[in-house]
Amino acid sequence: MNFLDQLGAAERQNQSLLCVGLDPDPARFPAHLKNDASKIYDFCAAIVDATADLVIAFKPQIAYFAAHRAEAQLEQLMAHMRRTAPQVPIILDAKRGDIGSTAEQYAIEAFERYGADAVTLSPFMGLDSVQPYLKYHGKGAFLLCRTSNPGGDDFQNQRLASVPGQPLLYEHIARLAQGHWNINGQLGLVVGATYPAEIERVRALAPSLPLLIPGVGAQGGDALATVKAGWRNQRAADGTAQTTGPIIVNSSRAILYASAGGDFATAARAEAFKTRDVLRAACQAA
Ligand SMILES: O=C(O)c1cc(=O)[nH]c(=O)n1[C@@H]1O[C@H](COP(=O)(O)O)[C@@H](O)[C@H]1O
User: Fold this and answer.
1) pLDDT tens across 185-198, in order?
2) What burial letters (b/e) apply to 169-196, b meaning 16+ CB within 10 Å?
3) Model-level pTM greater than 0.90?
4) CATH code of 51's domain
5) Domain tally for the chain?
6) Which atom of ligand 1 is nearest to the CA of 216?
7) What are the residue boundaries of the Orotidine 5'-phosphate decarboxylase domain, all occurrences included (predicted)?
8) Which of 16, 133, 207, 275 is the most buried (most CB within 10 A)?
9) Separation of 239 CA from ligand 1 center, angstroms?
């Protein structure tokens, strides 16, 4: 099964568009684990076990492991997810971007060392910096397009005078990803939930691509507006229903740290349940 098939299967099985982001910060762990970086695996595995039937994907953020010399715990966590939740695809959030020869090493890291199903990438260095990942047939690659942070405006909202139609940079990225950059059919785009109008624009430019949408929860993005903008059932001219590419709506801190007590995993499940249901209801209304 390729990454897109995995997403579709997980969405159907768990009736979910929610991605739980695994951004473990020992300073925010519950009292019995607090400030202990050797407990990163234990914390994340408990979250995975509590939410695996509620998600379309998991998204471990590599910096939260590397910063604590916890790469071995990330490997252990990947193995745990494979074993206990094989139906849930794993997006390794690494936001890599480098020249081709170095990108080849990053691709080995993401897909062979960690066994991720997809990775996040910066497209800033151009197509040859993305191509090494696309050699891994069946693996997904999400290009940063219109990110959720305020500084995303600095470059992504600039107009490209030399490109026909003078698109904004994020619009150009969306077109390339839907078009000739999509060499293996496995590209997706990252668009922040904090910018629903831009999600709508990206969806118009890239109708069939999966959109990874972080920014609900701690960053205050609106789940309902996100679904309205990015997810819709379309009718083709012949009347047949066509679904746009999937959306994968990520929430990390709001779920991970729903409780600072010993009930953190139960509280994470309750928060994930609530968020999944908000997203489901929004789909029904869309
Ligand atoms: O690529 C990402 O996942 C990403 C892109 C983006 O535009 N904004 C964004 O917040 N993210 C990531 O999504 C997660 C959001 O975390 P919360 O704000 O805690 O839900 C973090 O891991 C971010 O690194």
Assistant:
1) 999 999 999 999 99
2) bbbbbbbbbbeebbebebbbbbbbbbbb
3) yes
4) 3.20.20.70
5) 1
6) 20
7) 17-268
8) 16
9) 37
